[in-house]
Amino acid sequence: MKYALILSLLIIAAPVPAFSHGGSNSSNYILLTGFGPFDGYAVNPSEMVVEEMNGSTVDGAMVMAIILPVDFNQSAEKIRKAIEKYEPVAVICMGLDGYARKIEVEKVALNIKSMYLGDKFLGWRRIERGAPLFMFSTLPVEKIVESIEENGTDARISYFAGTYSCNYVFYSTLLYMEENGKSTPAGFIHLPPLKSQKSYGMELEEMVKGIKIAMHETMKEVY
Q: Which domain holds residue 198?
């Protein structure tokens, strides 16, 4: 039922207005985020990619990478503070999708979060009352997926980022950008498990390559 609702919303959605990324930011950072271990995974590939790429340079911009806690409020607050501190020219958030076979570049962030009391599911709530039901990534999603695939790594566009921490960070970041008048491209990418974690997983080197390509395609929009 929830998938039918999501698809119906996407069908009636109006096109997203184009933003100008003509370099209004004066800083020269790409903010990259990942999550720590969760849901039985002792190692989160997004954390490993963050550690691998932190301090590197992509198209003249330094990668400033941080690890977010798997917690609604703390994760959103940490990324907001990082944006305010570094004023990045682009923001790419990452997380693990334990069922993914490919790098999934997310298109849609939902204003919905799952609520639990211990292990008991309490239902869904709005992330922000009065805010749009959904928002769209301002990364060049289609170009990123096309370029990753052209370079030999499996990737796809995803239209559902879940209703937990990944989607929460995705939606909260886009809403923060809109409410503060920032045209900085921002979005979310889900990574599959490592090959060592699942037979259908992906090697870390492939993930790093894919994220570098995502940054490269995003920087084309910035400059």
A: 26-222
